[in-house]
Amino acid sequence: IKSSAASDVYKRQREYGMQLREKQTAKRYYGVLEAQFANYYKEADRREGMTGENLLILLERRLDNVVYRMGMAECRRDARQLVLHGHFTVNGKKVNIPSYLVKPGDVIAVREASRSSVKFSKLTGADAPLVTTPEWMERNKEALEGKILRMPERSDIEFEVEEHLIVELYSK
Length: 172
Fold this sequence. Notes:
By secondary structure, the chain is of the alpha+beta class.
């Protein structure tokens, strides 16, 4: 009987470890802190639908992620810094908050004052890197802007994550 109880504890520890690892992976992938991630989870849980999918959709809608997915930054960390430094507008207004949530119809553009910088000038022209934007957004490479066409769906997120493990972790 003792070995059965010990194996149950071991199994719970293993499950917890898998759940924690999945949460940490998602946190690092999107570059959010623990408290931010917990807040996103709470918001996802309040919304209708599947909590795990809602969580990923909220994270995907962050301005720093959108800037990265539109190919205006080399990585999410770079996108976060560019947003913080005020290089982007949303619907013509300067936004320097990486966690700003975009919505359908929003137009994200590089500010006029920033367009001539080396960082952005290499994104246009023939030698610009090839970027595949997700179906929920469109990108105008020459104008250095993009538009949110619709809300992202789970199928639009190519990040391999088992969001149900994150939900199980927070549901305890």
